[in-house]
Specification:
The complex is a heterodimer of chains A (224) and B (313). By secondary structure, chain A is mainly alpha-helical. Chain A contains 11 helices and no strands. Chain A has one domain: Urease accessory protein UreF (Orthogonal Bundle), CATH 1.10.4190.10. In chain A, helix 5 runs parallel beside helix 7. Chain B is mainly β and 313 residues long. In chain B, the strands form 2 sheets. In chain B, strands 4, 5, 7, 8, 10, 11, 13, 16, 17, 18 and 19 form an 11-stranded mixed β-sheet that branches. In chain B, strands 1, 2, 3, 6, 9, 12, 14 and 15 form an 8-stranded mixed β-sheet that branches. The longest helix of chain B is centred in the C-terminal third of the chain and has 18 residues. Classes of the chains: A mainly alpha (224), B mainly beta (313). The interface between A and B is large, with 43 and 37 residues.
Chain lengths: 224, 313
């Protein structure tokens, strides 16, 4: 295992299409729920402890070698919004393409074959981390960080927010990211023994509801 | 169980603490007021529940069976402690049960369980006489409320309790598990209200899992109140809304004709789940507006499906 692989995978420039998604920030900005750095911090914190924790646990479980088909079904059950399920699968499909070119393994080939329309992105992320020689903790860090870095970057574009302020929001969330990763990895280890029912299912009602509204907009800057 | 619902709805207790004096619940259609009281409670129905130092342990069991004559009978209808299930007049094919709160609670340290099963072809509807109010107890321990719903092939369960209100200082963990056979039907509504009128909420964690044929189609947990992971009241999760609810419909026909996603106002959406089920997810400023929204959605959905006539709802 090389730790540098984590930097490659977590790099915002890793060509997996994440930049096209705002993680719900675009809808929240339009609804007037994010108007500045303080709201962004609150938004990111809420997303981290709900969708972020679930994604981190799924990624961790996939990195541990849990059955990706079962994990994908668990992700479906934890994502009631069909718009978000579709977005997660599109991102998963893009990531599997990048991952197979970067760290080719038979597991990633099988995943691509088994899910022609894409598996949920966190599941693919976990298998990608595994292919890169990383463990569940690194996979969970990637997923948890993505859950907040996406909205932060998007808000810079949506609100012309000062990028320094957005980065400061992310930096201040670091201790909570550590906690979420710790919880996620513990849950992933339980899921490896007891099945995906042991994975967290934390939900954010407004993220789910707003995603459906956002998907129906005729013009939007971000895909989700 | 021969007691009728009318004689058993006197579930009141005396408020004895200064912190939670009697606050009338002004939410939704809850005609019955469940009085408050953190320190002492009295049971209206003289069934001594097994108590521990930590709180009350009580289970209600309900089994509905097709009686072979087009109706549904209830071979098991048993409660204890705060949980008193009563059979009420139902429709022609449907058995109706009302859960009556015989004591206040759940209080801190209590462990309450409702286990309801509709067997093959049986039709069961369960409601509650009043909102459930989570209150702080004498012991500073969290309370647990487990609801296990099982529906066999061809059976139908309508789980339509009144709201769950998280009062200030309470700490409750609710887990609702619905396990359905492939051709079972389910209507499930759950509503959480964060605090009584003008009150700060307690700590509430509520997980809802729906399985069809052993496969989870919905698994959601909401954590809110003091001590919940950060951001719960922020722009991603509740954004100041004080009522949150879910309505789940499971119908075998959704496998080939799922519902179409649509918004129901500004803060609610109807969505097809990844399985033969539909979900209405909603947040609202208060319990009354939440109930109106969920009722309207259920009425529309069932009318579109050729569901039960008005008097069965």
């Amino acid at each position: 295992m090389t730790k540098a692989a984590l930097l490659v995978l977590a790099d915002g420039r890793f060509p997996a299409g994440g930049h096209a998604h705002s993680g719900g920030a675009e809808a929240a900005v339009r609804a007037g729920r994010i108007t500045g750095a303080a709201d962004l911090a609150d938004f990111c914190r809420g997303r981290l402890h709900t969708a972020g924790l679930v994604a981190a646990a799924l990624a961790g479980a996939a990195a541990l070698g849990c059955d990706p088909v079962e994990l994908d079904a668990a992700a479906d059950a934890r994502t009631p919004s069909p718009a978000l399920r579709l977005a997660a699968r599109k991102l998963g499909r893009q990531l599997v393409r990048a991952a197979r070119a970067t760290w080719p393994t038979p597991e990633l080939d099988a995943l691509a074959r088994g899910f022609p329309k894409g598996a949920h992105q966190p599941v693919v992320l976990g298998l990608t981390a595994r292919a890169a020689g990383l463990g569940p903790e690194e996979a969970a860090y990637c997923a948890a960080y993505e859950s907040v870095s996406g909205p932060a970057t998007a808000t810079v574009r949506l609100l012309s927010l000062d990028p320094f302020d957005a980065t400061a929001v992310l930096a201040r969330l670091a201790p909570e990211l550590d906690q979420v990763v710790e919880r996620a990895v513990a849950a992933a280890r339980r899921a490896a023994l007891d099945g995906p029912g042991a994975l967290p299912a934390c939900s954010a009602p407004l993220l789910e509801i707003a995603a459906e509204a956002h998907a129906a907009w005729p013009v939007r800057l971000f895909a989700s | 169980m021969t007691t009728t619902a009318t004689t058993a709805t006197t579930a009141t207790t005396t408020a004895t603490t200064a912190t939670t004096a009697t606050t009338t619940v002004t939410t939704a259609a809850t005609a019955t007021t469940v009085a408050t009281g953190a320190a002492r409670r009295t049971a209206a129905v003289p069934v001594a529940p097994p108590t521990t130092a930590a709180g009350v342990r009580a289970t209600a069991r309900i089994v509905a069976r097709d009686d072979g004559r087009g109706g549904t009978c209830l071979p098991v209808l048993a409660g204890e402690g705060p949980l008193a299930p009563r059979r009420t007049r139902g429709g022609a094919a449907e058995a109706r049960v009302l859960l009556v709160g015989a004591m206040s609670g759940p209080l801190g340290g209590d462990r309450l369980t409702v286990d309801a099963r509709a067997e093959a072809g049986a039709r069961l509807r369960i409601g509650s006489a009043a909102a459930t109010i989570a209150l702080p107890g004498q012991v500073p321990a969290p309370a647990r409320y487990d609801v296990r719903l099982t529906v066999a092939d061809g059976g139908e369960l309508r789980w339509l309790p009144e709201q769950l209100i998280s009062a200030r200082g309470s700490d409750l963990h609710v887990a609702t598990h619905a396990d359905l056979a492939p051709t079972a039907r389910l209507v499930l509504r759950e509503e959480q209200v964060l605090g009584r009128a003008g009150e700060l909420p307690g700590r509430l964690t509520s997980r809802l899992t729906v399985r069809i044929g052993g496969r989870a189609v919905l698994d959601q947990e909401l954590s809110c109140g003091p001590g919940a992971p950060g951001g719960w009241d922020g722009p991603a999760v509740l954004a100041g809304h004080r009522a949150v609810g879910q309505l789940v419909l499971v119908r075998p026909e959704f496998a080939h004709t799922p519902v179409t996603s649509r918004l129901l106002g500004e803060a609610a959406a109807l969505v097809p789940l990844a399985g033969p089920a539909a979900l209405v997810s909603a947040v609202a400023p208060d319990a009354l507006r939440l109930r109106r929204l969920l009722d309207a959605a259920l009425g529309e959905l069932e009318a579109a499906l050729g569901g039960p006539p008005e008097e069965l709802r």
